[in-house]
Amino acid sequence: MIEVKKLVKRFGMKAVLRGVDFQVEPGEFVALLGPNGAGKTTFLRILSSLSRPSMGLVKVAGFALPAHSASVRQRLGVVSHMPLLYGDLTAEENLQFYGRIYNIPALNERISEVLDMVGLATRRRDMVRTFSRGMQQRLAIGRAVLHDPDVMLFDEPYTGLDQDASEMLDGVLKNVAAVGRTVVMTSHDLARAEELATRFDILSRGVIAASATHAELGNSNLLTFYKQALAG
Amino acid sequence: MDKLPLTTLRTPFTNQRPQSNYLRAVLAIAWKDLAAELRSRELLSSMLVFSLLVILIFYFALELDVKAREGITAGALWVTFAFAGTLGLNRSMAVEKDRGCLDGLLLAPVDRSAIYFGKAISNLAFMLIVEAVVLPVYSVMYNINLFNLGLIGVTLLGSVGYIAVGTLLAAMSVQTRTRDVLLPILLFPLVIPVLVAAVKASSGFLLALEMSEILPWLNILIVYDVIFIAVAFMVFDYVVEE
After folding, report:
1. Interior CA angle at A77 toward A74 and A80, to 5°?
2. Strand ranges for chain A from DSSP E
3. Do the chains contact at B17 and A97, CB–CB below 8 Å?
4. Cα separation, B120 vs B237, whole angstroms
């Protein structure tokens, strides 16, 4: 579903990604871990066609980037720590706006379905600026799944959430992944990543330093694996 | 949360997807801006207050007789529109950038020029609303009849040209830390032709000059509008890309 080979991204003279090889099969939930400045956000921005690679091959859902970026975006849902929502519109109006852009058929029914899913059906006519951070993040997920994407990218979705909101987001994320979507999530929260993901890739100094599935981790825990990958 | 019946949300993986409709996306972006502004009234109120203050300052600073007033009207109006327009352009893109919504728009599966046209339509609507308020107020304050179809046509053509360039440059400058300062610095040199042509054509209609004297300025406005809309259509994707 996602295929990346020898990906390089430079900002001026500085190379942030130095030859990333990365592959995700359909239905996998991959946690992309790494320290600050490792290039996780840059990598996700390239996968989501918001940034162009300097070199290398990037394919998402069978379409090469940046040549077929509109086709990729049609099949992609993105959630970052910014909700990408308009505070002066209601929850329903925000989804209507994105639904029109994606030309979603039977939009009103779809919006109701998505608001039910993220637990905001009773707040559909409230302005987004009155929502807590956790509610905004749930609506952001609703926005991202509105067009039923095959691939979902989550960039630090837990940033700024309290304990309750994080637990609620856990449930929504499990639901998103449980229905066969391919998910890539960056996070600093190893415990959460270990609970949700089926595979863990460690991005360090611009390359994938290590990769393992739950089964491959065996008795070793993710923290040990993470530390070893960074040390190596 | 995890017990909700979510299976209905997912259709099997398929390459058949509804194709995004370009015009629908353009209108959705314009609708979103207008609906949000209707609620907050942040943009329009600041543009309107600023415009009214400018014509008030002109009124008190320039103690003019009737003849002189007619002579400066076109210039005073276009200076007011240009400065108020800059406020609107800056704010309209800053709102997208500050909440990360620009990324949301860039993720839309349509040609990115749709974002340009959507933003340009809403920016133009805001500018026309301000002009629709400023013209009668100016008319009453300065005791000059501005209800002239020719003048309204020039106002429309000039505003289209100004917004065509301004929306493109606002999308560029919003990516920088000095966006508030950068936009007017980039914009005003580029809109000199449209401002000069708009002032000359407006003056021509207000002073009831022959159409043959006004026509060259109208032609400049039309050509300018067409060229800059075409340029923005071609380069907007590169302007907003990281």
Report:
1. 140
2. 2-11, 14-24, 29-33, 55-60, 63-65, 76-79, 151-155, 182-187, 199-204, 207-213
3. no
4. 15
B4 dihedral zone (left: phi>0; alpha: psi -120 to 50; beta) = beta
- The pLDDT of residue B217 is 96
Query: What residues form DSSP beta bridges with A7?
Result: A20
Could you give the CA distance from residue A118 to residue A136 in angstroms, rounded to a whole number? Answer: 10
User: Who among A45, A93, A103 is closest to B21 (CB)?
Assistant: A103
Q: Compute the nearest-CA separation of B113 from chain A (Å).
A: 12
Give the one of A26, A105, A174 whose C-beta lies nearest to B18's C-beta.
A105
CB of A9 within 8 Å of a chain B CB? The answer is: no
Q: How many helices (H) and strands (E) would you count in chain A?
A: 9, 10
- The beta-carbon contacts of A105-114 under 8 Å, at least 24 apart in sequence, are A105/B18, A110/A146, A111/A146, A113/B8, A113/B9, A114/A142, A114/A145, A114/A146, A114/B9
Confidence of residue A221 (pLDDT cuts 50, 70, 90): confident
Between residues A214 and B124, the one the model is more confident about: B124
Q: Is A151 helix (H, G, I), strand (E, B) or coil?
A: strand
Select from A102, A150, A154, A166 the residue whose CB has the most chain B CBs within 10 Å, as the one to mutate to test that interface.
A102
- A85 has pLDDT over 90: yes
A27 to chain B: which residues are within 8 Å by CB?
none
Residue A97 pLDDT: 96
Rounded to an integer, what distance in angstroms lies between the CA atom of residue B33 and that of residue B36? Answer: 5
Rounded Cα gap, residues B176 and A175, in angstroms: 38
| Per-residue pLDDT band at A81 (split at 50, 70, 90) | confident
Where chain B has pLDDT below 50, the residues are: 1-14
Residue B242: per-residue pLDDT: 65
Omega into A66 within 30° of 0, i.e. cis? yes
Give the single-character DSSP code of B143. T
